[in-house]
Amino acid sequence: MNARNLFRIAKKDWIEVRNNKELLLPLLLLPILLSVVLPLIFALVLPLDPGTPEDISNLRFIFGILDDVPDGGVMIIVMTNSMLKPYLLIIPTMVAMIIASDSIAGEKERKTIESFLVLPLSDREIFVGKVLGALIPSLAISWVSFFIMGFTLNIAGRPNLGNHLIVFEDASWWLLNSVLVTILSFMSTLFMVLISAIVKNVKAAQQYSALGVIPIIGLVISGVSQFFLLDVGGILIVSGILGAVAIALAYLSTKRLNREKLILALD
């Protein structure tokens, strides 16, 4: 594979997304909502009603929170770990799916797929280039959102956190963003590139994006109910499951994405 060809394919997709306001707007608003607005609400509102002393004591025990953390800070830490972790996973999922939905379906919709397929590119270069076009922005936006979320929580929640630094001092957050987010981005990209190759237009491809959010909603519910938490062990379990799904999707995508089948799908 030629690295320059891969970059050209990815860059072409980035330009198309940049020029499409329907795709660009959610790519900007979603990270702002989940990494700025929601953490601000958590940091400023949750300490106003931290709950009964018995509830706070139980939460300190379950989440391993030290006694020198004020009660308001306990609520920030608990809700950050039980809700914001899965919410953060929405960013790589949706960013990857939004961009990947335009990868091939967009070419069909703009009537440029024929001219794209006659370029001197191998089937593997087309596949990898399309995947990188969605995967790279997804990971980049996820890391930026992670740091913004952490700084927002620590700055806004400082009066209730004392000298403690949340998110950045927790190894599970770094594991989440470096391992689980990467696997989830890759899986979401593969799924949507595959769907994009099958359907006729971008809107039809985007209808499938809701499927990627359903498991995350399940993680939010399980986190709030404390049934399943994304601690180090939980992250490794979910990463293993999604990694297996990603491998299966990679196999299906390589079988589906070739010139002959893409051309036949145009008829």
Task: Give your account of this protein's structure.
This protein is an all-alpha fold and 267 residues long. Helix content is 79%, strand content 0%. The protein has one domain (3-266). The protein contains 13 helices and no strands. Helix 3 packs across helix 4 (71-101), helix 7 (123-156) packs antiparallel against helix 9 and helix 9 (171-198) runs parallel beside helix 12. The model has no long low-confidence stretch (mean pLDDT 82).
Please sum up the structure shown.
The chain has helices at 3-18, 21-45, 53-63, 71-101, 105-109, 113-117, 123-156, 158-161, 171-198, 202-206, 210-224, 232-256, 259-266.
Main features:
single chain; 267 residues; mainly alpha; 0% strand; elongated
